[in-house]
Amino acid sequence: MKHAWGLLLVIGCGSSGEPMKGDVMFTYGTDHPKMAFGAAVQNKDTPGEMLVQIGDDNVDCSTDLNSFGFGGPSGNFVYFSVDATTPATVADATISVEHSTGNHVSINESNGTVVIEATTPRVTGNLTFMTTDQDVGDIAVSGNFDVKRCF
Fold first, then answer.
1. In terms of Cα–Cα distance, which of 92, 44, 82, 94 is closest to 65?
2. 78 beta partners
3. Tens-place pLDDT, residues 121-135
4. The total number of structural domains that make up the chain
5. Mean pLDDT to the nearest integer, 50-66
6. Alpha-carbon torsion, ordered 50, 109, 136, 104, to 10 deg
7. Is residue 10 a part of any domain in this protein?
8. Which of 37-46, 61-70, 99-108, 127-136 is least confident?
9. Is the bond into 47 cis (omega within 30 degrees of 0)?
10. Would you say 125 and 149 are in contact if contact means Cβ atoms under 8 Å apart?
11. If you average pLDDT over every residue of the chain, what do you get?
12. Nearest-angstrom CA–CA distance, 93 and 144
């Protein structure tokens, strides 16, 4: 019986969220978190758009990084809003990068390129984003993603 409890503790302490397929590379200063989770949800602020969210943890169909601010999940995230139905290239998409630890949230926002290849049954595409933060240094995100569509 004690082995079963140990297994539950190991499972309960792992990462959580909707697995993302793809090869998104994330550089946050000198850190390179592995982006492994993702979900596309309806953008509550802009009808007709979806919020595509990718992170190293804590991204699932109930995540809405637009509305969390302080008190949201901890981790590293990249997110952007695009048309929910039409695949397209958005050369000047507003892309946000968030680094959140318990009591500190840092959000960097700039324009980047997003290509949406499919919106159903999953959201697939690629993105490119680069900016510099005076405290962190270079921040870059690039690669292909395939995330669950949650709406």
1. 44
2. 54, 97
3. 999 999 999 999 999
4. 1
5. 96
6. -70
7. no
8. 61-70
9. no
10. no
11. 90
12. 16
Tell me the H-state helices in the chain: 2-12, 65-68
Quick check: 113 pLDDT over 70?
A: yes
**Under 8 Å CB-to-CB from 13, ≥6 apart: which residues?**
none
Indicate whether 8 belongs to any domain. no
Measured in whole angstroms, how far is the alpha carbon of residue 41 from the centre of its chain? 11
Residue 4 counted as domain residue: no
Task: In whole angstroms, give the CA distance from residue 142 to residue 130.
Answer: 9
Amino acid of residue 15 = S
Instruction: Decide if 78 contacts 26 (C-beta within 8 A).
Output: yes
Higher pLDDT: 32 or 10? It is 32
On the question of pLDDT at 86 being above 80, the answer is: yes
Residue with tokens 């959580």: 16
**Between vectors from CA 45 to CA 41 and to CA 50, what angle results, nearest 5°?**
30
In a domain, 1, yes or no: no
Structural domain boundaries enclosing 47: 16-149
Task: Identify the sign of the CA torsion 57, 133, 32, 7.
Answer: negative
Is there a contact between 97 and 139 (Cβ–Cβ < 8 Å)? yes
Buried b / exposed e along 59-70 (16+ C-beta atoms within 10 A): bbeebbbbeeee
Q: What is the pLDDT of residue 71?
A: 64
